[in-house]
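seq:
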Amino acid sequence: MRKYRVLLTLLITAIACVILVSCSSGSPKGDSKKAMEAYYQYIVDGNFESAYEKLAEEVKNNVSKEDFILLNSLRRECYPLKGFKVEKIDNTSTVKDSVEFNVVQTINNARENKETNETYKRKVVASNNEWKVYQEIDLKQEIPDLYNYIGWMYLEGKGKDKNLNEAASTFNQAIKYNPDYARPYYGLAVVYQQQGRYDESINNANNFMDKTKSDQEKSAAYNVLGLGYWEKGQLKDAKDSFLRALEFDNSNEYAKNNLANLNK
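struct:
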């Protein structure tokens, strides 16, 4: 009798395991397209906390809620999402744990006050038996890049009222987030040059040149460097800087004009 009870227990356990495996191996609950659309609607509405909850666990493991909200707040300031359309790609319909979509989004470039459409692919994946959005996010690149963009909005007075102090503060936020990101140093060099803070302008132009690998960007930095030296009365250093600017990019009209005016 005891033997039969043991066999019965084992049989019940086996059946339970089969049921659990069967349930866990099925398709995630809900509609994959609706999951993707819900994510984008939250972004449009500025509800970034709810959008974060629509992300796959693999994404959440690499991106904190705080950083996700910061990233999308900055995106909204630079390129607010105005609308979207998602269409399922047919050749992924047989994949049970991943569905890929074509996404067309309409954004407004706040600096240029111009709407544009962007098209790309994005997928939802099975995560905790639900459809969740998967995307790769490079925080160390994108967040300082957005801060830099906002800094130029303040610096140029495009999309925001011109405000050199706000520009400097925003460029410094970019540097604080990622000190190795080059471009905000150039923005600071330009801001400080316009504010008459020439030593700080020179220091930031040099920092920018140390970090960038682009010849055109080095040329632009040498031009700002030359302006700083010129204002300080260091005319030889100014001339040398304008000449170096032209060595890196002989089409730099700003450096050409500054050199010509310096030689008058």
